[in-house]
């Protein structure tokens, strides 16, 4: 176990500077174009793959870094460059984590390389959990997976929505119901291999922000996958279901509610780090602008009304980063989230990003309101962080329940 530290080591500083260079030189100049095009920035993903940023190796190194700072540091730098492009680069990692966390060694070895492809032929992956009627209420999921014992195949039917990289992914990870009576405890995750018959893309969404990142519905119509595509394997699933049945029986047959909310605790700091990246980008831009924009014969930062805003912005960004680093360190070192620290970090960082980007728009005045300047895009991008991976209201619900022990609704 690593002690908690607030300082990056020399190696991490080197990685940070390298990522910052990529974010500043490759991502930032391309950001407005891909935002406008609303398309996956394949050439940038390919460039990231060529230099080694878009790869399992790179992601796994940060993910397993025992200090807990590697992943949030890398995420912050890339999202500082541009949120939409960064999500296109990191989206695959988020799907890969599902396999890393629950898959067998064989599944990890088979599927994760196919999620990334090669630098000459890059691929992306998607994680599909949300459904039209099951967003915050994960337990309301309806996509069904039924085991066909004779063929050792799973048959999956349903419609997923809001899937990042949905339909354009080489490999989809799909969460489905295997035992409806058990609520979210009766869910399991499946790999849908490339070119599987029955999987198709539904509507592609036109969005308010992170427009370079592809978001779409995924339709599963009698999709058949081999038994080996059940993440973790059948034996482990059967054991888990037996335990859940036992627990449900003890709870008087009451449906096991919202268990999935807690399982996100460890992944939420990553979204917090994305928000910190966007917030810092807007703060950096506004600070420089305020020093150079002259009104009434002096730079606007000479006014306390502007300078104090920047002071608050910087304080919030730093506070958000500290919460993210703490939760990330807890996650990698297996600390219990007794105060829902993962949710705290995501709640605070995402709300900070919304507020700080709005302040940046204000500091840039009319220019802040135009697409000539990047803070307008950052402000639109920031709105996603209080929505995906659990809305701010759901984070508050998780924190409130955790600290009180009361099943607050
Ligand atoms: C761009 C984008 C990318 C996404 N990527 C993915 C992805 O890759 N994979 C995936 O599976 N999903 C993804 N999502 C889905 C995302 O996680 C959901 O949108 C989110 O969980 C909210 O669900 P919902 O949209 O159905 O909102 P709803 O659950 O309908 O919520 C609507 C409003 O009601 C509030 N609310 C709901 N329940 C409560 C409650 N109990 N108490 C208080 N308030 C409540 C919410 O906070 C929210 O303000 C993505 C979404 C977007 C927009």
From TrEMBL:
Cofactor(s) the protein needs: FAD
Pfam families linked: Acyl-CoA_dh_1, Acyl-CoA_dh_M, Acyl-CoA_dh_N
Origin superkingdom: Bacteria
Coiled coil: none
Domain Acyl-CoA dehydrogenase/oxidase N-terminal: 9-115
Domain Acyl-CoA dehydrogenase/oxidase C-terminal: 259-403
InterPro entries the record matches: Acyl-CoA_DH_CS, Acyl-CoA_Oxase/DH_mid-dom, Acyl-CoA_Oxase/DH_mid-dom_sf, AcylCo_DH-like_C, AcylCo_DH/oxidase_C, AcylCoA_DH/ox_N, AcylCoA_DH/ox_N_sf, AcylCoA_DH/oxidase_NM_dom_sf
PANTHER family according to UniProt: ACYL-COA DEHYDROGENASE, ISOVALERYL-COA DEHYDROGENASE, MITOCHONDRIAL-RELATED
Protein name: Acyl-CoA dehydrogenase family protein
């Amino acid at each position: 176990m690593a002690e908690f530290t607030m300082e990056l080591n020399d190696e991490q500083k080197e990685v940070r500077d390298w990522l910052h260079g990529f974010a500043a030189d490759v991502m930032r100049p391309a950001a407005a174009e891909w935002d406008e095009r609303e398309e996956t920035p394949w050439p940038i993903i390919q460039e990231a793959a060529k230099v080694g940023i878009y790869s399992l190796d790179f992601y796994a190194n940060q993910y397993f870094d025992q200090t807990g700072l590697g992943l949030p540091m890398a995420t912050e730098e890339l999202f500082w460059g541009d949120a939409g492009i960064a999500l296109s680069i990191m989206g695959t990692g988020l799907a890969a984590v599902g396999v890393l966390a629950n898959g067998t060694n064989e599944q990890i070895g088979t599927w994760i390389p196919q999620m990334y492809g090669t630098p000459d032929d890059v691929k992306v992956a998607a994680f599909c959990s949300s459904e039209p009627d099951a967003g915050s209420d994960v337990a309301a999921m309806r996509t069904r997976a039924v085991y066909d014992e004779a063929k050792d195949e799973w048959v999956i039917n349903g419609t997923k929505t809001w899937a990042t990289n949905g339909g354009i992914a080489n490999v989809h990870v799909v969460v489905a119901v295997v035992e409806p009576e058990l609520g979210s405890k009766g869910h399991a995750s499946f790999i849908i291999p490339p070119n599987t018959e029955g999987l198709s893309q539904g509507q592609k969404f036109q969005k308010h922000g992170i427009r370079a990142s592809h978001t779409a519905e995924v339709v599963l119509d009698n999709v058949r996958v081999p038994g080996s595509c059940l993440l973790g394997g059948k034996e482990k699933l059967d054991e888990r279901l037996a335990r859940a049945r036992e627990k449900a029986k003890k709870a008087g047959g009451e449906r096991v509610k919202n268990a999935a909310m807690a399982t996100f605790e460890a992944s939420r700091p990553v979204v917090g780090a994305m928000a910190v990246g966007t917030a810092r980008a807007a703060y950096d831009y506004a600070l420089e602008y305020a020093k150079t924009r002259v009104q009434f014969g002096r730079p606007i930062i000479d006014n306390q009304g502007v300078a104090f805003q920047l002071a608050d912005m910087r304080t919030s960004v730093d506070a958000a980063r500290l919460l993210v680093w703490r939760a990330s360190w807890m996650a990698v070192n297996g600390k219990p989230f007794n105060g829902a620290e993962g949710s705290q970090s995501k709640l605070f960082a995402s709300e900070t990003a919304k507020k700080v980007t709005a302040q940046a728009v204000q500091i840039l005045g009319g220019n802040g309101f135009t697409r000539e300047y990047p803070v307008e895009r950052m402000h639109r991008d920031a709105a996603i962080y209080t929505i995906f991976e659990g809305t701010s209201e759901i984070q508050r619900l998780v924190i409130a329940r955790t600290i009180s022990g009361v099943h607050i609704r």
